[in-house]
């Protein structure tokens, strides 16, 4: 034991010693430092266990001195003094302190590690005081669950058992004097323990014309130093060169042929190999004498469709070189993209697909449609015959005259006409069991029978029998029929009393007709309930074609059980119906209870008003949901009167809301903080004349400022932008038609059902209609034209209402001939009292006399977004589901 201690003592005496002492030395950036190694024997200085040939080392007796001038990041690391004879060594770690870079700046940014290996990210601290060194992803996402690592400020962060999901960008993070410090970014790429992955630079089928250049490239990932990559080609008669380029952890091989011939056709294989195996991909090269276009055969070039259906005509082809012309034409006239016919072209390699979609076909659109395509060497055409079938129509009939009746029908295909007779007066003879078809004395002539479009047929029947009282003309085509009836009377001898009785009956009939005319006139003059929103089907210049809302589909998934509605107070009532607050049980889930608004007609409603309410339901279901319109929640159309269930907006219409808040309005300029935004006030309630029930005082507590007015403007513009995207025109945009719900969310609605326009001063008699003239654009007033641009004009008037806190537009000006003259001459309202300059500029642009110079709602949204705060923008987030619950709590 004593011998062991003796030798240990000698070993300690023989180990070299380094001064300054300690495990590490910290030196400032760009300063000089020296390390002294004392030893009786010859020593060598090492840095990171490698010789320091570039450093200044001097021997002074038993001390070997290493000197460094202007220390930089490259001088950081572990320095060791090793005896050459015994191999004994002592070490010290040198930090080069850089205040601007707590970690040594990266020299290498990309690292490649094999799957299952260990790798180190060299994030070396320049200050030994850095603590809590750990790893983070560059994008802040959590680290992979299986990632394990060890951290040292002297060596960096070492990842163990690397896996493919570790691949990504990392950064080292530590704490220095209470502050978080970060290193540069490191990109880790993981090489799978598998053969290389090959990616081709071109499609697997390459077409060329003789004389063109061929260039093929393939790249591989998952490489290492042992990988090989090459192209294997068929017998090539000319010089070619294969380039292999190492790029980081990727490799690329390129084959170039200057001018190809037919002998160069064939398969070209790219192979890549590493220690795990070989991968290969093939490119097939075809060489042609000249370019071509080959159409795929069309199975059926003759199409028969019903009017109102949509049809897609599709052509598929292979072509080389790429075609420079794709076109569709109808009867020789080139077609362009419109809402009625949409043209799309797609390509994949040398395969091309062109499609013409004909939307809601009309009979007049029957005819020949031609697809044309050409490149520098070839031109092809493909024709389609489109026949649009229509329901037959009886366009005229007359008789009996001179013992003959006449019936004319048209349709495509050309209808067939048959005659039936029976004894029953004014009955459909063809439906009777003893129906008799009249085939004698019938003359039928086809008047027109064009290849496309409607054909016309005329049929005449000579009446030879007096034993029947009714004749029926039946026109049929494609399984659909139409008919008309003729009443045939026997020849009888008049009775003595016939003439005075006839006179009496005629007089009574004339009086009755006069009464009916007066009643009909009054009924026509009476305003009709109709949905204001119109959905556009097509635009032809300045002419808009609207979709008939009765033709829109209705999805019965909207149906809601009537017995799960409990009705409450009436929210609004008009000439045709009312809106009632109701509680719906199980609207979204079985156990939910939701407050809703239910639209319904009065019991005395006519068929046209019932159809209008059904049209409103169909339009709402067609539009879909948006936070800034009053959304459809359900409907009851079966087993009783039609009920339309919509969102309940608990704080009434915007016009009355603004008027109630005048006394509590806090005016701010843009950018000014509203310090009293949450002050609770109790203004006096006002009566509402705009249909929706007045709010209670307890529901009207918070103050209102300029930011709120901007919020209302922004939300309505967002809602109108949504309607425009659905090709929908509002036609009655005003503050009275905007509802507010919890959180001051504005929702656009159509209040026609619950408003009596005959008593509303905002609707002025013009012709035989009552119109909101002060909100209408000049083209709507004078030309009865309603467009997206006329809605923008109305939006400008709405902005004036908002920033005047509910004043009536054109104050003090009655709607008379002078008013119409001023509008024609370009009169525009001045800025309202509380409008910022930027908002009045938007109003004025909405009132441009040229409709096409008015901004779109999308542009208006962008302009207002520049003025409002981020918190106001958040109002438009999809919170509809929360608002229904919150409406019962009170303050908006």
Automatic annotation (TrEMBL):
An example Gene Ontology cellular component term from the record?
Answer: receptor complex
Q: Which Gene3D superfamilies match?
A: Immunoglobulins (2.60.40.10), Phosphorylase Kinase, domain 1 (3.30.200.20), Transferase(Phosphotransferase) domain 1 (1.10.510.10)
Protein topology in the membrane:
Single-pass type I membrane protein
Residue ranges occupied by any Immunoglobulin subtype domain in the UniProt entry: 28-88, 114-179, 209-277, 400-480
Domain Immunoglobulin: from-to ranges: 22-97, 108-191, 203-288, 300-389
Q: Name one GO molecular function term.
A: transmembrane receptor protein tyrosine kinase activity
Q: Residue limits of the Tyrosine-protein kinase catalytic domain?
A: 565-864
Protein name (Swiss-Prot/TrEMBL): receptor protein-tyrosine kinase
